[in-house]
Amino acid sequence: MNFSSVCGKSWTDPTIPKVNVTFILKSGEERTFKTPVGVLLLEAAQHFNLDIEGACEASLACCTCHVILDQKTYDLIPPPCEREEDMLDLAPQLCETSRLSCQIVVDKNLEGCKITLPQITRNFYVDGFKPSPH
């Protein structure tokens, strides 16, 4: 499934399956959302107005979409590529189950997963610019 063809209509299209994804916010609050299969985890977080940046717009050039997965979910999804691992090396609060949410496509394996948003991220913009999601 192509991300660009899915992202616009997937939130309202009843034919696209959805899975329950729980985000653990910086405050510790847990919020669960029905998330369409085929979208990026980053896009889902931004769609639900969660505090996650994605400064490079999913081009693997930053670590501002760093999230921490529960172990079960981490074990179920494909491993990170070398470029993602390089970007994760720059992420503050790196954990064994850290991933970049721009590299995770929501699928049925994410049903019931818990995704923790770290307390801080590192943005390399010096002017404080924070791009808004598209």
Automatic annotation (TrEMBL):
Please tell me the species this chain comes from. Cryptosporidium andersoni
What are the annotated GO cellular component locations?
mitochondrion
- Stated name of the protein: 2Fe-2S ferredoxin
Which Gene3D superfamilies would you find in this protein's record? 3.10.20.30
Reading the lineage from the top rank, the first entry is Eukaryota
Q: Where is the 2Fe-2S ferredoxin-type domain?
A: 19-121
Extract the Pfam families matched here: Fer2 (PF00111)
Return the PROSITE patterns for the record: 2FE2S_FER_2
GO BP terms in the entry: P450-containing electron transport chain
Q: Which InterPro entries match?
A: 2Fe-2S_ferredoxin-like_sf (IPR036010), 2Fe-2S_ferredoxin-type (IPR001041), Adrenodoxin-like (IPR001055), Beta-grasp_dom_sf (IPR012675)
For molecular function, the Gene Ontology terms on record are: 2 iron, 2 sulfur cluster binding; electron transfer activity; metal ion binding
- Listed cofactors: [2Fe-2S] cluster
| This protein's UniProt keywords | 2Fe-2S, Electron transport, Iron, Iron-sulfur, Metal-binding, Transport
The opening ranks of the lineage are: Eukaryota, Sar, Alveolata, Apicomplexa, Conoidasida
| Family affiliation | Belongs to the adrenodoxin/putidaredoxin family.
